[in-house]
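JOB MANIFEST
job_type = single_chain_structure
chain_count = 1
residues = 154
[input]
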Amino acid sequence: GYTIDGATTLVDGHSIYVSEDSPKITNVGEKLNYIQFIIENSEGGLVTDNYCFTYKGEFTLKVNPIEISIETESATQVYDGYNHTFENIETIDGTALVPGHSFVVSEATSIKNVEKLVNELSYTIIDASGNDVTSNYSVVSTTCGEIEITKRAK
């Protein structure tokens, strides 16, 4: 938002708006914030150039990463001679991805023979358009599930 000091008045019938060209920030980082104003007369004509603006101070827009906790899948499979990967990742402890964001696994622990392994996964987080937004998150804890191949019955 913004405020206009008591000494500043607009001509009757004029309205002030924040420009759509004012800075915006979506991803983690900082950006200098300056507000651009538009002043219109009662007919919708631009009269901004007839006013002088004084800005007090410098302001920064800042987006911090979202803290999430994740857990990889645990699973058991009876031996069948094939390699298996279990690629589900979930957020836990009340944390969540932004709606429209999802995990994409790039590397997964593979298991084929009778054994038990920690299910370690490499992943990125993407938005609905497929853009990598992993840097917008801070993983504060990872719980790796266990994957196991068990013996076949005789």
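[summary]
The longest strand covers residues 66-72.
The chain has no helices and 14 strands.
exit_status = 0
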